[in-house]
Automatic annotation (TrEMBL):
The gene is Sptlc3. GO terms for biological process: ceramide biosynthetic process; sphingosine biosynthetic process. Keywords: Acyltransferase, Endoplasmic reticulum, Lipid metabolism, Membrane, Pyridoxal phosphate, Sphingolipid metabolism, Transferase, Transmembrane, Transmembrane helix. This is serine C-palmitoyltransferase. The chain crosses the membrane at residues 60-81. Pfam families: Aminotran_1_2. Pathway: Sphingolipid metabolism; Lipid metabolism; sphingolipid metabolism. Residues 162-522 form the Aminotransferase class I/classII large domain. Its EC number is 2.3.1.50. The keyword ATP-binding does not apply. Residues 1-22 are annotated as: Disordered. It is a single-pass membrane protein. SUPFAM superfamilies: PLP-dependent transferases (SSF53383). GO terms for cellular component: endoplasmic reticulum membrane; serine palmitoyltransferase complex.
Length: 554
């Protein structure tokens, strides 16, 4: 395999294109050796997968799609009617308006998102940005607020809603906690270092805690080196431009997180999108990239890098890593894996999708993850070969311009990671990983049995429950809060406009009693709002693998 450090030093094209002609001659279009993961649509398990791989993307009945479009149609008609009334002074204008002196200027906002925000989102805005006044553990306390003008403004009542079951936070392993004994070392580091570093990593912001955490992260992942950053989003958006640039090609999954999308756009590289987890779509792009090269000049691409996530946060699906690694090796491309939601959450010991599939960390050129979820902290990391990390220490925009990670936050990550690795002398970390797996499978199985349409992999702690119709988004979240259950509801533009959903995040800290309370409430509310759409139909996501030959190299 090519040296991953070539991703950063610009030498990839020398190695990358030596073997392109041989690859084309060796049978890109072979139809033998097809390997597939087990899915609900009947695809059999192949040699690439060491365990059953089950994902669900059930299609809603036709009447649901019709009613969803009808609901948005009615909302749009009334939205234009209300805009007309606002324009003629028949209804109060609560939104910002252009000044009279600027009436001939091009409006700042004139796209659909502004219309949607003004006339649809505002009616259900009370279901977002709810202020929490406690640790976001398995339960939290919520500040009650009400509105007198249909969600344009809010006022607090002074009342606190106690012990709301938290089904929305990414607290996968339960490390978002306030136990005094657990946080003892964090308190010591806070007392020693204070709260801020006040400098960048390249200036006076590298502390001994940063060196310690980077060594621990590398050991945890089984790689040569790692570098940590103070913000998870910026780990992607500020470092991808350091790895690729003009003359490079990025192949990005269509459902990648905004941080990956932003990083790819800032890099100046050419971006091509492949269908979600669809190996034929990815292989077609790889094949075309090698055959045709860059547009107009037809020169070979300097670098080709594949961007994927471990667990996709809106779909709950897990990347088909064995097949992507096989394609990466076959076409001599490079792989950037974002494990923001998967590190700590899957794998026998919480080491993410690489461990989940029983693969080697060396199969992935750039390993990325965040500490904001499973570790109950903040920030992110990039890991891989030492040459790669050394390059990033010099060329990373975050290292040059962003303030370093707070030492107390670093200590929180260290204590959580040591717990996972058993370096604290206990098996508590392993127990948390196993409990998360049990809770996830139990919660998903019960929702399936009740008849809800849920997306994603059976082992994914991210559980999207499809609501579809716009009117049910607000009704669902409000009624769940009445039952003392806090949920996250998601709609356009974070999802396709017709696939509104509630997204549950299962935690190891959830007790069986808590999950049963939530499931009983969902069962009742599912009947009341008519949300049980499941017919156990085949996936609506196309599975096109017939022309793909995937064989792992020795």
């Amino acid at each position: 395999m090519a040296n991953p450090s070539a991703v950063c030093n610009g030498h990839l094209h020398h190695h990358h294109h030596q073997k392109q002609n041989n690859l084309l001659k060796s049978g890109i279009c072979k139809k033998n050796g097809i390997t597939k993961g087990m899915k609900k649509n009947g695809v059999s398990n192949g040699t690439l997968y060491k365990k059953t791989f089950i994902e669900h993307f059930e299609q809603a009945p036709m009447y649901v799609a019709v009613l969803t479009f009808l609901g948005f149609g009615v909302g749009t008609v009334f939205g234009y009617l209300r805009d007309f009334m606002r324009a003629w002074g028949l209804e109060k204008r609560n939104i910002a308006a252009e000044r009279e002196q600027q009436k001939d200027f091009v409006p700042l906002y004139q796209d659909f998102e502004n219309f949607y925000t003004r006339n649809l989102y505002m009616r259900i805005r009370d279901n977002w940005n709810r202020p929490i006044c406690s640790v976001p553990g398995p339960q939290f306390d919520l500040m009650e607020r009400v509105t007198d003008d249909y969600n344009w403004t809010f006022r607090f009542t002074g009342r606190t809603i106690k012990n709301v079951i938290n089904m929305g936070s990414y607290n996968y392993l339960g490390f978002a906690e306030t136990d005094v004994n657990a946080l003892k070392t964090v308190a010591i580091e806070l007392q020693k270092y204070g709260t801020g570093v006040c400098s960048t990593r390249q200036e006076m912001g590298t502390l001994d805690k940063h060196v310690e955490i980077e060594k621990l992260v590398a050991k945890f992942l089984g790689v040569e080196d790692a570098m940590v950053f103070g913000m998870g989003f910026a780990t992607n958006s500020m470092n991808i431009p350091a790895l690729v640039g003009k003359g490079c090609l990025i192949l990005s999954d269509e459902l990648n997180h905004t941080s990956l999308v932003l990083g790819a756009r800032l890099s100046g590289a050419t971006i091509r999108i492949f269908k979600h987890n669809n190996m034929q779509s990815l292989e077609n792009l790889l094949r075309d990239a090698i055959i045709y090269g860059q547009p107009r000049s037809r020169r070979a691409w300097r670098k080709i890098i594949i961007l994927v996530e471990g667990i996709y946060s809106m779909e709950g699906s897990i990347v088909r890593l064995p097949e992507i690694v096989s394609l990466k090796k076959k076409y001599k491309a490079y792989l950037y894996l974002d494990e923001a939601h998967s590190i700590g959450a899957v794998g026998a010991t919480g080491r993410g999708v690489v461990e989940y599939f029983g693969m080697s960390p060396d199969d992935v050129d750039v390993l990325m993850g965040t500490f904001t979820k499973s570790f109950g902290a903040a920030g992110g990391y990039l890991a891989g070969k030492k040459d790669l990390v050394d390059f990033l220490r010099t060329h990373s925009h975050s290292a040059a311009y962003a303030t370093s990670m707070c030492p107390a936050v670093a200590e929180q990550i260290i204590r959580a990671m040591k717990c996972l690795m058993g370096l604290d002398g206990t098996t508590q970390g392993l127990q948390r990983v196993r409990q998360l797996g049990k809770n996830t499978r139990y919660f998903r199985r019960r929702l399936h049995e009740m008849g809800f349409i849920i997306y994603g992999n059976d082992d994914s702690p991210v559980v999207p429950l499809l609501l579809y119709m716009p009117g049910k988004i607000g009704a669902f979240a409000r009624r769940m809060l009445e039952k003392n259950i806090g949920v996250v509801v998601v709609g356009f533009p974070a999802t396709p406009i017709t696939e509104s959903r509630a997204r549950f995040c299962v935690s190891a800290a959830h007790t069986r009693e808590m999950l049963d309370t939530v499931l009983n409430a969902l069962d009742e509310l599912g009947d009341f709002l008519r949300l049980k759409y499941s017919r156990y139909s085949k996936s609506s996501h196309p599975e096109l693998y017939e022309e793909t030959s995937l064989e792992l190299e020795d």
